[in-house]
Structures are given as structure tokens and as C-alpha cells.
Automatic annotation (TrEMBL):
PANTHER family: HYDROXYPYRUVATE ISOMERASE (PTHR12110), INOSOSE DEHYDRATASE (PTHR12110:SF41). It is an enzyme of class 5 (isomerase). Residues 24-252 form the Xylose isomerase-like TIM barrel domain. Its EC number is 5.1.3.30, 5.1.3.31. This is D-psicose/D-tagatose/L-ribulose 3-epimerase. GO terms for molecular function: isomerase activity. Keywords: Isomerase. It holds the Pfam family AP_endonuc_2. The keyword Isomerase applies.
Length: 283
């Protein structure tokens, strides 16, 4: 059975001691690990969280984003250097969490658009930044799992075909890819084709419903998703990523304007759903 994780963004983007009772309850539900957003907290907060989760017997993964001021595909060399510096900073924080994976769309600035399709030069620029950052990440045995987003959040990578092009441009063993069922539900024609495309470099999976609520309660074609993951013999994390308005600042930043489901409904029923689908399809 694949390891099952839960992204605590359903409660907050901050890494702090306030998460301790939530994480303990997630452990009680049966989760193998928790995923954290790499935000502006100081090193000490990440070290405390890394020690706490380790003592509980939980593993961790991490997720990050970049913006206009540190966009890897910017025409400005100074901005691209800021992107590299920010990713290296994130590697340090992930290492303090004991994470071996940093996932997310940090190939470009989140919701930064240029009113045209992506160009080959932009894949090359992102590849250069990611290659250099991956050299640094390799020292901590950390792998990047880059994420394709839907067209309303990103223009560089919407599909697995584009994401594979980016991973090839980075040309580094520590630069790989992730698959998110929410974004793929919008952008891909078929889960099977998408997963076959990205299979050679797939390192992480987000289980996310079409409305970002409880997995299994919406319109995602879950049998297609799980059977396709089994067909490519995916053996990595199945991590639930769902959102709420518990952290208004983060919710506003990603356009979450209503509650989809209570976070504990998502955590409890989502875990059961993944277990059931995993057993059904041999994951």
C-alpha cells in the first residue's frame, strides 16, 4: 500500500506549535505523513516541527510556491537569482522538517501571466534555475516534484506533456514531477494518457477533489485515476491536498471563497476513501 499523507493547508499555511494537536489526530486516523507549506517562519519553527513529527513516527513532505518577485522564468537575471535563492532557502527548511520531497509549481511565479503561450526560452530559463537548485537539494537528498497547474493559475505548465518538457529542460536526477488530480481534472483529456506520459519521472501525487473538498465526494474520475496509477506501478505518496477558509490570508491568495467541507471530514473520510481505492486497484 502506498503511503498516505495529508497537507495541513486545510487548516493553515503556517508552521507552528498550534498544529501539534491536529497532527497527532491525523496520526491517530492512520496517516503516514503530513505535508507543510514552506512559508516565512524562522528556522526554529521548522526544526521543532521536524522533531515533533519524527517523535510521533510520521514522515513529512513539503510544498512551495514562488511569485512575481522571484519568478524563475523572468527576463531579469536578478529576479531569477532571487528564485534560486528562495528555492535554496526552502531546501534548508525542508531539511529541518526531515522532508525528502518538495512539491509545487515553483517552476514559475504563481498566477503570474504574460498574455501569451509559454515559449521554449522560458522552459530553458526555468530549467537552469531548477538545475542549480537541485544540485543544492541533492546534498540533503531532497527531490523536487514539480507541479502542473490549471490555466487559471499558471501558463507555463498546465499538462503532463508540458511538465515532462520542463523536467527534461532541468536535466537533473533530483528534478522530477508530481500529478494533481484537481488540476488534471481540468486540463487533461484522460488520466490514463496523462499518467503514462509522466510515469518515467513521477515522484509525488496529490489526491484532490474537483472542488478541493473531500476526495470521493465530487466529480473526479477516481477509478480512472487509481487504476492508471496502479498500471504504471506508482509506489510514492498519495497526499490529500484540500483547502478551507481557516487561514483567511492563504485562502484569499488562492481564491478560496467558501467552505467545501470541514477539514476533519476531509481528513477522516478522505483517508478511508484512499484506502478503499488503493485496495480496489492494487495500490
Amino acid at each position: 500500500m502506498n503511503k498516505i499523507g495529508f497537507n495541513v493547508l486545510a487548516w493553515t499555511a503556517a508552521v507552528s506549535n498550534d498544529l501539534f494537536p491536529i497532527i497527532e489526530r491525523l496520526k491517530g486516523i492512520g496517516y503516514d505523513g503530513v505535508e507543510f507549506y514552506l512559508g516565512p517562519q524562522e528556522s526554529a519553527a521548522y526544526l521543532r516541527m521536524g522533531n515533533y513529527t519524527k517523535d510521533l513516527g510520521l514522515e513529512t513532505t513539503a510544498v512551495m510556491t514562488l511569485g512575481k518577485e522571484d519568478n524563475p522564468v523572468s527576463e531579469s537575471a536578478d529576479v531569477r537569482q532571487k528564485a534560486l535563492d528562495k528555492i535554496k532557502w526552502a531546501v534548508d527548511r525542508a531539511h529541518e522538517l526531515n522532508s525528502k520531497i518538495i512539491c509545487g509549481p515553483f517552476h514559475s511565479g504563481h498566477t503570474v501571466f504574460v498574455n501569451r503561450p509559454p515559449e521554449d526560452q522560458e522552459y530553458a530559463l526555468a530549467g537552469e534555475v531548477l538545475n542549480a537548485a537541485a544540485d543544492y537539494a541533492a546534498q540533503a537528498n531532497i527531490t523536487f516534484a514539480l507541479e502542473a497547474l490549471n490555466r487559471f493559475e499558471c501558463y507555463l505548465c498546465n499538462t503532463m506533456e508540458q511538465l515532462l518538457k520542463l523536467v527534461k529542460a532541468a536535466d537533473h536526477p533530483n528534478v522530477r514531477a508530481m500529478f494533481d488530480t484537481h488540476h488534471s481534472n481540468i486540463e487533461e483529456k484522460k488520466y490514463t494518457t496523462a499518467l503514462q506520459t509522466i510515469a518515467p519521472v513521477l515522484a509525488h501525487v496529490h489526491i484532490s477533489e474537483n472542488d478541493r473538498g473531500t476526495p470521493g465526494a465530487g466529480q473526479v474520475l477516481w477509478d480512472d485515476a487509481f487504476s492508471s496509477l496502479a498500471a504504471i506501478q506508482y509506489d510514492g505518496w498519495l497526499t490529500i491536498e484540500a483547502f478551507s477558509r481557516n487561514d483567511p490570508g492563504f485562502a484569499n491568495a488562492i481564491g478560496v471563497w467558501r467552505e467545501f467541507n470541514d477539514p476533519w471530514d476531509i481528513a477522516e473520510n478522505g483517508y478511508k476513501f484512499i484506502r478503499e481505492m488503493g485496495l480496489k486497484h492494487g495500490l
